[in-house]
Design a protein that fits this description.
Helices cover 24% and strands 21% of the residues. It contains one helix and four strands. The chain starts with 5 loop residues before the first strand and ends in a 12-residue tail after the last helix. Bound molecules: zinc ion.
């Protein structure tokens, strides 16, 4: 049985110590299955947020902004109007 080796998303190095591997998230492939994202414990905090979740959040915020603009409302992120 072969142990699965994960590669750090931040530095690209193999994570040889299983206790040092931190599961960061799951990335969907454009075609076929996606893959898990791992990082060294020390590097997990340095990673960008999950790109999929960020994209969805940006989409939701944009939809909200456009729908308010269509209503004639003024959308102001500076005013905390999310
Ligand atoms: Zn690393």
């Amino acid at each position: 049985m072969t142990a699965e080796v994960h590669y750090c998303r931040h530095c690209g190095e193999a994570i040889t110590d299983p206790d040092d591997a931190v599961y960061v998230g799951y990335e969907h492939g454009n075609s076929g299955p996606g893959w898990e994202i791992w990082a060294h414990r020390d590097h997990a905090d340095l990673l960008e947020p999950d790109p999929v979740a960020t994209r969805i959040l940006a989409h939701v915020l944009a939809e909200r902004a456009f729908s308010r603009a269509a209503d004639g409302g003024l959308w102001s992120p500076a005013a905390g109007d999310w």
